[in-house]
Design a protein that fits this description.
Number of strands: 7
Structural class: mainly alpha
Strand order of the largest sheet: 2-3-4-1-5
Strand content: under 5%
Distance between the termini: 64 Å
Number of helices: 47
């Protein structure tokens, strides 16, 4: 099993991991199993398979001692790759420098940092595929785990795969990642017997049966129990027995107690410092194990084949060391480690606090400084723990109160609302276990709109619904259900929606609640026929019911039925704003703004957005404020104001992601998609769009997954992912999206046209631009005409191309979408229209060799293959490309094809 010996009984798991290692397209796999079941051995096998194929492998391992240190896991993972980050743009490099403490500045959002990691992975995998291996991921710090989940869901289309191992018996941040899972079970009896016989052939029959019975197919137990039997330290199994992982800890604890005191101290320091879990970054000090021959002989340590350093045999050895040490021994080890890490303020503070018992103002001050460092790096949740501990160690009441207040403030900014409430001992804390439904509705609305607290609000409202008697007041039930639907819409969480769907299904009747559920929730699968129901509901609605005007208006927007109700929605919005019903007014103004964005009246949309922001500022509705900022960011992205769009994206993501407001994090991703499309960075656009919906699928309960259909297809087409683009277009048709709304029908027709083969593309484009809904969405229609014109030019139908491209350019001009207009005019010149200037564009600055290398790279060849063709080393090819990128105004090789084509167009 180890040390080069065959892996027994894992044929299925090895085949799955071998396929992952050899996969040409990126994907992630989560290995889940109990302690000692062999996850690490399987991950080692995947890494070895990858290396044998000539791929690159980077590895990291979670360590309990570092689980509270922000970005420790990410730093461990990326450290070998960071030298190559010099080839990335300044913004991406700055994101890494900030979170790893190299520079100060505004901490990047999870989305910005995740995209930066994807960019680095894409750069590194340019020459050969990359396998990312994370072992013991359940011990990753929260910040690293969040970034890890982000990138793991967005590997499609990259030459990057990811294998992650977690314990089945420990909760972790990876549990909700939604990744494909490979469960690693115990060995079956025959395989267990084979493994035992291979490693302990001298056991007596009785001992063999005893080991097999106690190990229960756990490979680590099969290796360790024979030695324990020989040494007389095996712990028997019986009724009420400890879990196997605890019994293995006890075995290791027995061996630890046989060591000399100095050696036990050495091992304890290493365990508390994370030594021996994975290779240490060169710029980070670690406690180095010395004089540990006894631990090696006892099988507690082994020697790392790559470095020659002693490392812990298994994480359970570290756990056993911590369990067996006395409190005084642990504090002494922490004190020594605090001295070792004096230059790393956060590590120094963590160890110093653990070594301190009595109040100490000097230690509290160090913890306060560490909290400021953590906050500056985007690790506010760690700062809360540091400030809370600083308060505990404050000798005087004044500083203690101040530090608790600081902790409460940071907790509130981190969406740790319950913890913030407890820390600041707020007088308005809700009291009592039995509360009326009306009180639940009032408090849940406040939690949702003022704080974005979707999780606890959903929990309270669902509990109130569950406690209603069957013959309870129907109006109260309807109000609770409608509130639950609003919360679920903002959460966009399938788990919460499952609860909501079940509660809605329990209530038969003719109310609008079921309609709201079908429109707010899984529209792709429940939306057929809902548009007609909305239109019928509006026909029977009076203006005196603003609540239903608001909710029906939201449903109408998602079903492309808002245009018919435009006068009513605007009239009620104005009326409710004047009368003080601000919740309804703010929502209705959002609908007005979205209608203005779709219809191309972007100046009016910006004015509406600013009006809405004024309302949210007066009434303290943070959730709606973030929405308005997001919609303004979407307008900025379409116009080409990429700085404003990026600022809106980061603001929205930083606020919404920790709170679990998935509806707004998806809006942030839609802004990122549009901004990158506008900038011509189709690789970046694909990273964002494929995070909303994997090609060929539509994420349940995600409104943006449907509305970015064209964005995903367009970015996939421009990055050479023709198969993914076509799969997505066909999936939209087969899912029945055209039957849900005219807008989705138009997007589906456009996606099919963009991905059609050349023999049928002409007719497909004609159908798309003639779709009745196209005129209602001038920005999308102009984009389809631009794509049609590009296809016509490639088909050598230059006169027809000029007509269509001129229409697209004029539409973009009317909208104020300057970058899109420039792109359309560049295509016009390539189609033979008179050019305003005869310059050849940025490509004129390329040398002959740079141009030749750029064209070969744009065709999809790796640096190694280009070098072989031109008799150059891959390193020289890479150096040429790094000079080419800034000359063409791009940041990655994925943009080369379009950059060269654009320059050719300008020349033509």
């Amino acid at each position: 099993m180890a040390d080069g010996q065959p892996i027994v009984g894992r044929e299925t798991e090895l085949a799955e991991l071998s396929a992952l290692a050899a996969s040409p397209d990126g994907r992630a796999l989560l290995l889940r199993g109990e302690a000692g079941v062999g996850k690490s051995v399987l991950l080692d096998a995947a890494a070895a398979r990858s290396l044998a194929l000539g791929h690159r492998v980077v590895r990291a391992a979670g360590v309990g001692a570092e689980s509270e240190l922000p970005f420790a896991g990410l730093h461990q993972l990326l450290h070998p790759l960071l030298p190559q980050a010099a080839g990335l743009d300044r913004v991406t490099r700055t994101a890494f420098d900030t979170v790893f403490g190299r520079t100060t500045g505004e901490a990047p959002s999870v989305m910005t940092l995740g995209v930066a990691v994807l960019d680095l992975f894409a750069l590194v995998s340019g020459d050969s595929p990359l396998l990312v291996v994370v072992d013991d991921a359940h011990w990753f710090d929260a910040q690293s785990a969040e970034v890890g989940r982000f990138i793991a869901r967005r590997l499609s289309g990259h030459a990057v795969s990811m294998a992650v191992g977690v314990r089945a018996d420990l909760p972790s941040a990876w549990d909700a990642a939604g990744l494909p899972e490979l469960t690693v079970p115990a060995l079956d009896p025959r395989a267990a017997a084979r493994l035992l016989d291979a490693h302990a052939p001298d056991l007596s029959t009785a001992a063999r049966h005893q080991v097999l019975a106690q190990a229960r197919g756990n490979p680590l137990a099969l290796l360790e129990l024979p030695r324990a039997l020989r040494e007389g330290t095996a712990h028997g199994a019986g009724p009420g027995e400890l879990p196997l992982s605890r019994r293995l800890e006890q075995l290791y604890g027995d061996r630890i107690r046989t060591l000399a005191a100095a050696e036990r101290t050495e091992l304890l320091r290493a365990a508390l410092d994370g030594t021996g879990a994975a290779p240490s970054p060169a710029d980070r000090a670690r406690h180095r194990l010395r004089a540990v021959d006894g631990a090696l002989a006892a099988g507690l340590l082994t020697v790392d084949a790559a470095t020659g350093d002693p490392v812990f045999r298994h994480p359970l050895v570290r756990s056993a060391l911590l369990q067996s040490a006395t409190p005084n021994e642990r504090r002494a080890a922490h004190a020594e480690l605090a001295r070792l890490h004096h230059a790393d303020i956060e590590r120094h503070a963590v160890h110093l606090a653990a070594a301190t018992v009595d109040p100490d103002e000097a230690v509290a001050t160090v913890l306060e400084r560490a909290a400021r460092s953590a906050t500056a790096r985007g690790a506010a949740t760690s700062a809360v723990a540091l400030l809370t501990r600083a308060a505990e160690l404050s000798p005087a009441a004044g500083p203690r109160s101040r530090r608790l207040g600081d902790a409460a403030f940071v907790a509130a900014q981190s969406a740790l609302l319950d913890q913030a409430q407890e820390l600041r001992e707020a007088s308005d804390r809700l009291a009592g276990a039995h509360r009326s439904p009306t009180a639940v509705i009032t408090s849940a609305y406040a939690s949702l709109y003022r704080d974005g607290d979707v999780r606890s609000a959903h929990r309270r409202v669902a509990a109130a619904l569950g406690s209603l008697p069957p013959d309870g007041d129907p109006e109260t039930r309807t109000r609770l259900l409608n509130l639950l639907l609003a919360i679920s819409l903002f959460a966009a969480d399938p788990a919460l929606w499952t609860v909501t769907d079940a509660l809605v299904d329990e209530v038969p009747g003719t109310s609008y609640t079921a309609l709201y559920r079908d429109a707010f929730g899984d529209l792709a699968r429940r939306g057929t026929g809902a548009r007609e129901r909305v239109q019928d509901a509006f026909a029977r609605l009076g203006e005196e019911q603003p609540w239903d005007v608001m909710r029906l208006g939201v449903a109408a927007y998602y079903l492309d039925a808002l245009g018919d109700q435009r006068p009513l929605v605007r009239r009620v919005a104005d009326r409710e704003a004047d009368s003080g019903a601000v919740t309804n007014a703010m929502t209705l103004l959002q609908l007005v703004m979205l209608d203005q964005i779709n219809s191309g009246d972007w100046d009016a949309a910006e004015r509406t957005g600013l009006r809405g922001l004024d309302l949210t500022a007066v009434h303290g509705y943070a959730l709606f404020a973030q929405q308005y900022h997001g919609f303004l960011g979407l307008v900025a992205a379409r116009r080409g104001d990429l700085e404003a769009a990026t600022a809106a994206l980061n603001r929205l993501d930083r606020w919404a992601r920790p709170r679990g407001v998935g509806h707004l994090t998806q809006l942030a991703e839609a802004i990122g998609t549009t901004a990158h499309l506008t900038a011509g960075d189709f690789e970046g656009a694909y990273s964002y769009a494929s995070g909303l919906a994997a090609p060929g699928t539509f994420t349940p309960y995600s409104q943006q997954a449907l509305r970015t259909l064209l964005d995903l297809v367009e970015s996939a087409v421009h990055t050479g992912r023709a198969a993914q683009a076509r799969a997505h277009a066909v999936a939209a048709r087969d899912q029945g999206l055209p039957a849900i709304s005219p807008y989705l029908g138009f997007l589906t027709a456009a996606a099919l046209a963009m991905t059609e083969d050349d023999t049928r593309a002409g007719e497909a484009f004609e159908r798309a631009v003639a779709h009745p809904a196209g005129a209602e969405y001038p920005f999308e229609l102009a984009r389809v005409r631009l794509a049609q014109g590009m296809w016509l030019r490639r088909a050598r139908e230059r006169a027809a191309a000029r007509t269509v491209l001129a229409q697209a350019a004029e539409a973009f001009d009317r909208l104020g979408a300057a970058p899109w207009a420039r792109r359309a005019r560049a295509e016009l010149r390539a189609a033979g229209a008179a050019a305003a200037h005869g310059a050849e564009g940025p490509a004129a600055a390329l040398t002959a060799q740079e141009r030749q290398i750029a064209e070969l790279a744009a065709s999809g060849l790796s640096n190694k293959k280009i070098g072989a063709r031109l008799s150059l080393s891959p390193r020289t090819v890479g150096a040429h490309l790094y000079r080419v990128f800034p000359k063409l105004g791009i940041s990655s090789r994925a943009s080369l094809r379009d950059a060269l084509a654009g320059n050719s167009a300008e020349a033509g």
